Amino acid sequence: MTTRPPAIVWFRRDLRLTDNPTLAAALAAHDTVVPVYIDDPDSEAPWTPGGATRWWLHHSLAALDERLRATGARLLLRRGDSLTALRALIAETGADAVYWSRLYEPATIARDRDIKQALREDGVEVHSHNAALWCEPWTLKTGAGDPYRVFTPFWRALQPQMPALHIHRAPQSIPVPKRMPDSLALQALGLRPKIAWDLGMQATWTPGETGALTAAADFAKASLGNYREGRDFPARADTTRLSPHLHFGEISPQQVRAAVQRHAAGQARLEDDASHVLRELGWREFAHHLLFHYPQTPEAPLYEKFAKLPWRQPRDYAADLAAWQQGRTGVPIVDAGMRELWTTGWMHNRVRMIVASFLTKNLLIPWQEGARWFWDTLLDADLANNTLGWQWTAGCGADAAPYFRVFNPVLQAGKFDAEAAYIRSWVPELSALPPDAAHAPWQAKPAILAAARLRLGTDYPLPIVDLAASRQRALDAYQAIKAG
Fold this sequence. Notes:
By secondary structure, the chain is mostly helical. 49% of the residues lie in helices and 5% in strands. It folds into three domains: 7-132, Rossmann fold; 133-165 and 209-293, Alpha Horseshoe (Serine Threonine Protein Phosphatase 5, Tetratricopeptide repeat), CATH 1.25.40.80; 304-483, DNA Cyclobutane Dipyrimidine Photolyase, subunit A, domain 3. It has a five-stranded parallel sheet with strand order 3-2-1-4-5, sandwiched between helices. α14 (349-362) packs across α16 (383-394) and α15 (367-377) packs antiparallel against α16. The N and C termini lie far apart (73 Å). The mean pLDDT is 95. It comes from Solimonas marina. It catalyses: cyclobutadipyrimidine (in DNA) = 2 pyrimidine residues (in DNA). Residues 5-134 form the Photolyase/cryptochrome alpha/beta domain.
């Protein structure tokens, strides 16, 4: 009986065994496989992974290796240029094929195209698979043959194209060559911070496939039925909190779909909630669709006229940007969000919109500054989602918010954090204030501040900008673009 040479399974952002079509295809075609992860951040420049992302990656790789070892395999770790590392591994193992799951960022598309061509010229088979999306970005076009720029018709077109709900089971056994090549130690990748700023993330998250599956099951059991309404309230635990797991491919959109639909089956209220979960996953698909078709958008507005918007200059906004990053703007809901981000690597989506609006509209600081900060501090720093979110709030991207939409942080706090529970949890300086005062302490009566022993400007800053005046400044700036 002829034994086929092993295949290399190149894990990237598909760090799971369940519902992994790439791994399934390699196992179906080869007697043995060699699982590998290559740390090659330079190939993703200028959007190399940020500090929070690399923290999650460290723990996710450890979890994947643990899962693989339970099947009789293990994860090899290499570092450096991806093509060089793959060629070395091919030489060491005699592999005749490389399998990977597709990525959709401009830099990784170009890298993977070059690697595929080079390996095929070497006589090595290359197989790439979709393991991250319901539909490939190039498969959906408008009636005119153009990419979609508006979510609603995109979602309408996507739904009938969604694949059948089939989940690949995790293999119980993964055969590997008798002699496995050497691997770097995980610590050698240097993914964890040298200074222990990650304690809040450690206390909040469980990276890895098991953590992802547990989070999806817990959400379906505890929050499905509350999601549609509750997801807008940051003090409530009614969001999925699956975004980091989805970004690293520890769980697939199909698995989330299966979890919520299975739990909701036959219950109208839950089925309605499940449809809203899928719609939010549809926004994730839309973001990747846009990034694929408009690769310039991480740096440039989708609508070119907004490149002329008269943003403030770095020399003028440096102090305000630092205050925003540190959660010291004097606007409680904004500061709460930025502190949650710094501590946990995550921020509630409603609050993301509020802090982004404050930066771009009230402070008139370019959205790219906010996108870069989120990129470094978010555990779910996904280039497609990050770009879509910031351009939406700035009003210059697909499905853009009207230029005149400026989130009033005080009104938003009153509506979505009425009891100031979220604010108090992240801005403890205000914990003794009643809700209305906690939403806008600079408007509180002196007696209320005195009773709380709060000295504005000392214990907690005064707002760095006048909300009404800065709103008008933003409207004037955007009106000039509209007129032009």
